[in-house]
Model the fold of this input.
Amino acid sequence: MIRVLLTAFLCLFLVQACKSWGNPKPGDPAPLVDFDATVKVKKIWSTGVGDGMGKEGISMPPMFANGVIYAADDKGQLTAVGAEKGNKIWTIKTKQAFSGGPAVGESLLVMGTLDGTVLAFDAADGSERWSARVSSEVLAVPGISENIVVVRCIDGRVFGFDATTGTRVWIYDSRVPLLTLRGNTNILLRGSTVFVGYADGTVAALKVADGTVIWSQSVVSPDGRTELERLADVGIQMVIVASDLIVSSYKKRIASLAADSGRLLWFKEISSFTGVQVDRTNLAVSDSGGDLWLLDRRNGSTLWKIDQLTNRGLTLPAFYGDLVVVGDKEGYLHWINISDGAFVAREREGSKGFAGAPLTVGTTLYVLTSKGTLSAYRAGAAL
Done:
């Protein structure tokens, strides 16, 4: 009798467990879908570049310039790696808590820190050029143009520094809401203009030379009964293509603006904090729920939508030839056909997600994991 009861109990437990395993709870990452891989992907090289990102809300994707990939960790290590073979060119270890960067330009490598310090290094050998203080922590990638280093702080202030000496040239101040998402929109430079996105859903265009406001435009209104409902942060990455500035907001809006005036051209109700990516007429975006969209960047019309990656904590997508590549918080890289939104390959790079969006340079895709591993991939005809 006891054996019968135990057997019945075990069967009931297994049935309930199977139901639980087959039906993820709300908020759980969507299970990986099965598909037949049709594109071959190969890892070309991989190397360690520090301890990765140990702090919540810090995103420091790798940067490319002149055949070199630059990567940082939040413990103060900077590494320059040969883009072709993965050989380390130089590594320096500082005592700084890096939180924003790296930015590369005009022979400089610029980083921001949690204690409000901006540091400029020689991109060729990693030697320190200068340092400067700002008003609060730096969580966005700085920008460099026309001998000016532009740095945005979490308190809303934007600073312009002389790229040669580190002397402060100008400051632009803007209020931020009481409650914002952890992270800031990266600086976007176009010639003599710098574009800055804010937590209240506003985008401002400033003159690089002196910080003068060219225009300011509200992408979405931060209205609502509670601070949470009023979250309207502009997404981390904005893009310019032709004469259009395309931005996203956490408060359910992607918008295209005229870059010279801020005039609204079109908008679509999609929420995204990671931002947008563009390739010719295609616009890719990972929304806040984990759906992946491909839009026509000229008018915002939907080309396709993938709803099989819900709650997987997607990165900003990257374009790779005729594919879209996106990473998730479990370390998977999903390779998707642009033409129809079909999965064509999947690779796993670690298990703790990524330090930022994948980076495409020519026929190579570079990814930096949250644990500090930098890897290079090639796919399809590039193999």
